[in-house]
Amino acid sequence: MTNSIDEVENADCLLISGSNTTEAHPVIGYRVRKALKNGAKLIVIEPRRIELADYADVFVQIKPGTNEAIFNGLLHVIIKEDLYDKEFVAERTEGFEEVKAAVEKYTPEYVAEITGANAEDIVEAARIYAAADKASVLYTMGITQHSSGTNNVLAIANLVMATGNIGRESTGMNPLRGQNNVQGACDMGALPVVFTGYQPVVDPAANEKFSKAWGVSLNDKPGLTVTEIFKGAKDGTVKAVYIMGENPMISDADLNHLEESLDKLEFLVVQDIFLTETAQYADVVLPACTFAEKDGTFVNTERRVQKVNKAIGPIGESKADWEIIMALANKLGIDWNYGSAEDVFKEITSLTPSYAGITYQRLEEEEGIQWPCPTEDHPGTKFLHQGKFSRGLGKFHPIEHQPPAESPDEDYPFILTTGRNLYHYHTASMTGRSKGIKEFSFEDTLRINPEDAAALGVADGDMVKVASRRGEIQVKAEITDTVGKGVVFMTFHFSDSPVNKLTNCVIDPIAKIPELKVSAVKVEKVAEMAAK
Length: 532
What we know:
The chain is of the alpha/beta class and 532 residues long.
């Protein structure tokens, strides 16, 4: 997030897109509710009628996979009606004229044809957003999990910069992280192109610094992303994989393809707290311990580094992740001698400028510290890009609408999109083991529009087969008008109805993220099929 969680409630306008905030991020959803009580305007842009749509000043319901078009449409209106921030654009950005030319054709009427939204709603949403003094955009994987995910984010950035809604309190573009400590994992270099703190592996100075600190000669070539790793496993170019705290056999796209990839590996190690669906494929399972059994730090979605303290000792033979990794390194002859999680953290701060001022003592005394925090007397950074962007001038990018990789056709007439629900977390490897939670949510359903259900002869609760070009599953139907005609929805929490057998592993060419949010499927009533 460019800004902070508590700033949400003081925004004058919230634009939420690709995020079912109250269910997937209920703490931030609470802040959204407080903002509305404080008089904030709310714009919701979603394929489904989520709960927040009932409170929105304008709800723009779009077809899945049309995000670039809708944001270009908003910017078109803002420019045409002379509502953009001319001073901010002139002093702090570059490339505006190119974007202005690119969005010229994205009239409300043209965008309505692409997205299925009402042209009037597009105009109203643009005016509300542009009129706000402090407007904040909240988004999640409904924006990024597309073959055009990078362009979707750039289109949002264009809108934010054009209105000057960046570098100030309660503004910004704020991606809400989808998993615990995923921000911290990225900060620590769990990406194939960077060291810690996003220092590029191709930068000679960064490469030399880390090589010297670690006493090795480091490769200066970017590695593989997760999607590329599993493709390499299937092709035979990747022989072994080490998976920590991740359950791709439920969460990744095209599970049949993933299963083939895992089967072709020569060696698979899984380090986790439960024997997950993925761990069942492993040659070796390393038992990690939970957050309550270890000391360390987590970094949340607002860049806040927070310390956790051990409440109980590790159960059974489990160990903290850093201890497992150090033991493995020493088995390989590397000779690491960290004595505690704090020793590891001190090394992090010595090599990572954005963490340099953070210490365990400060974290014990304060309620976490937001990076960048370059010195020990620095208070941390509540919001980014105040005064100037990290690259100097903010860069506009002309973006064109790119259709999803799959569109409905005669054989597969529905668009399937996926998401989460309030009760379960990610692949339910933890929440699915909770008896209390399962009383509220014990199975998934296929949400389908009443008109589509009637045409298929499907009643509420009927078993249906849902099939894509990659696989098929059976699940109960739930008839609801929260999805539009031609669109169906499922969550990905449940292993007995693994929706990711259906989803498409085509990737964004830049971020390499799969298009999990748009897949062409067909739906058939199971009883009718049996009768045939």
